[in-house]
Amino acid sequence: MTPVSIGARVRLLGAERPDHVALRHIDLDGTESAHGWAEIDRRSSQLAGALAARGVGVGDRVGLGLRNSPQFVFAAFAAWKLGAVPVPVRWDVPDWELARVLEVIGPKVHLSAADLPWIDATAAGETPDLPDVTAPHLQGICSSGSTGLPKVIVAERPALYDYRMATPMFAGWGKVTQPQVILVLAPMYHANGFTTLYNLLAGDQLVVLAKFDAARAVDAVERHRITHFTGAPTMLQRIADLPGVDERDFASLEWIMQGAAPMPPSLVHRWAKLIGPEKIFMIYGMTEGLGWTALTGDEWMGHQGSVGRGIRGTEIRVLDPAGQELPTGQIGDVYLRCGHMGGYRYLGTAPRLRATEDGFITAGDMGHVDADGYLYLADRRIDMIITGGANVFPAEVEAALIDHPGIADVVVIGLRDEEWGRRVHALVEPADHANPPTPAEVIAYAKNRLAAYKVPKTVEFLDRIPRSEATKINRGALVAARGGGARAATRAAGRAAGRSPARASGQGQRLEPRAGG
Q1: Is residue 32 included in any domain, yes or no?
Q2: Are strands 61-64 and 502-503 parallel, antiparallel or unpaired?
Q3: Stated pTM of the model
Q4: Which of 48, 134, 291, 442 has the fewest CB atoms nearer than 10 Å to its CB?
């Protein structure tokens, strides 16, 4: 089958399946709406005509600063129909940060919540007969990566619908009934959410949550007989923690995909109990499209902690800082190479990722491979904490602490420390705010699961871990907010609590008093 422009694909689906419900939307208040292909085709063309009147044309960029909504979908398809490049943008950032991001994107038009009435009003206009054009780039995805600098990752391949989009990644491992009924949990400004539009083009049905909510997600699985969803570990943890979740009906699920970060082992086992390990598909990759590794849950059971082996032609190398390949089992920088990914480029001043002369690229993650070629991630090099001369990976500490029954969420950072250089500091969201564990209990729990040098030296309690809607964490901002060091944060927390910071008897460790987030 010859690839066609995305606009042509939308028009074809509108003609062939006019009344087929392709998109369901579950709003913040729980109300639902359903949208067929004829409506999606018509509304995206009407909006495309209105955007063209505002000067949008082939190669221009259109910012999509909208919540998950039908209007977001119409706008993305409208951009493609004009040969423009849709760039989803976080809508939940301060104005100063949004201005900085938009300066990098340079959109011809940026659509925000304030534009929703204008978008809706285009429904009263005529449906223009648009020429068949193809955007030079499939999309742009905003990311600050590890540098803190705004950047937009632009796919170098053109915006064509390729029939291979209709082949789910899991199809090589297990059964996938098509069309799929896909629940969209992630915000569509994130790659995991935005790429479900390609599933829509392949004929799958999307059930889109305006905002992730664990209880609403489970309700949607049962009511709409969801066959697939993709979730970050934090989302999966919140679903698994729902009261009575073991009695809920997940029978319609054929597979779930987990990405964004490695799953804590306890969470893999929890979901294996809920749906069966063979239905869990774990994948590792980057928005830049450097390649992928993947494995199923039952495969993971024999390689616990792994993110899989290279798929679709992906090769893996683990190199030391001098670029020399490291032996099996030794931690270094993870480099991937995949010849058919199409490439990427950045807008903005963010530097390109490090690459070898023969085309292997690293996103800054560290890890090792085992004798069977399975990759295990340690953490991002930039997040690594060097404490007392030893390397500590926050992800390992977080995985150890999240199993504590009194902890709902946890993030580990490194703060400046006169004695240790950097100290391991745990930010904890208690499961029961009225009865949180004490810092000493958290530290004692960690001591039973980690080497001594990896144990948090200080613990701080927050009302809620400050995650984005995509459940991402900005560790740099968390460190900066605490002055980068222990004393300023400890004194401030002590003043807030009305007492001096405590010291654990006989342990020589500073303990943060309980502080609100």
Answers
A1: no
A2: unpaired
A3: 0.80
A4: 134
